[in-house]
Amino acid sequence: MKSLFLPKFFIYSFGFLIAFSLFAEEGTKLIAWKPIHDASGYQIQIKDKAGKIILDKKIDTPYHSIEELPSGMYMVRTAPLNLFKKPAVWSAWKDLEIIISEPPKVVKETDTPVILSKQESKSETTIKELTIEGEHFLEATNVDLSKKGDKLPIVSKEVKTSERIDLKVDTTEAKTGPYDLTVTNPYQKPKVVKNFVQVEEPKTYTQESKQTSKENLEEIKKNERVKSNTEVYRQNEEKVSDTSKNISGVKPSESNQSQKQITTPITPKQKVTLPKGKSFHDFTYDEMIVFLETDVAINCKNTKIPAFTLGECHKTYVILNFASEDNQSVFEFYKLVSDNESNRISAYRYFSNNCNPIFKPALERMELQWKNRTNLDPEERQSLAVELPKFRACTR
């Protein structure tokens, strides 16, 4: 059932209080105000945002139907009538917003909960971003994340569109486990989504399991070479199988020639060199990796950040140079292939939202990550599942 909603507001005029509110009961849409003692009736005026009075009426009751008014912004005022049916005193003009309140809907791509992890140290506040997608969202929509009386503190709520709400959630002191999402529109039944989010303890790593950025880059290149050689080997295996099926019908000379072609050794992957005059956006993934390996800041030994992105180098910190989009894209790619999960998640968001033109090496990397998603933590896997489709579909 559709209904109208207006937050209460108050008008002070000559010592009496008039409270306007808009409510709905079984489809009836009224604007009402506090009755005035000894009033002989009331006069109500409503004007549109252009200032034109669209309703000017004397009535006997302290309320009036506005069924015929479409949603939008208006201004309203009222006055009690004296014994001569004349306005005794007008209230000030006040804003009136009529909006349609419908039952909210929540859309989820998967049945698995969104993972919100906690920090290892409680001395630092942990704020996680969460997006809710659906339909019929309003500024007045209430959002709640709770389980058995425990609530996740929502630091901020921003209604981006009628189909999207962005939240910032504080998980610092949150208990681990699943939380239900409740979305409520004024005068409508709440929409409850069970186990919408899952709060988890941070995943710990031993010192031995960590890699430096350089080791990580080498490992990525190694995996790519193994993948390439495996594919070539598989294709040759298929050729051998096809040849063995037809070998009985082949002449000796042809058979020897076929065997010669089959036993040709697999050539290793050629060494990648940096292209000249080519935009970073058009680099291949391998070319971008080579660039990161060679673009070393010789005069800034305290960091492994690419020299191309550095502005100033100091003993305890560096200042980045984002004078152009290329500078920032290269830095985000550096984060994308780092061994820091938070950096990678941040880079996923950057490239899905800044894809004009598409940064091709980043797309290759994210596709590779998706193929190997079983090796990722749940939170990173969830982020990649959201950002990669947006990156693929980017047409800006």
TrEMBL record:
Residues 243-267 have a biased composition (Polar residues). This is DUF4476 domain-containing protein. Residues 226-242 have a biased composition (Basic and acidic residues). Residues 226-273 are annotated as: Disordered. It comes from Leptospira yanagawae.
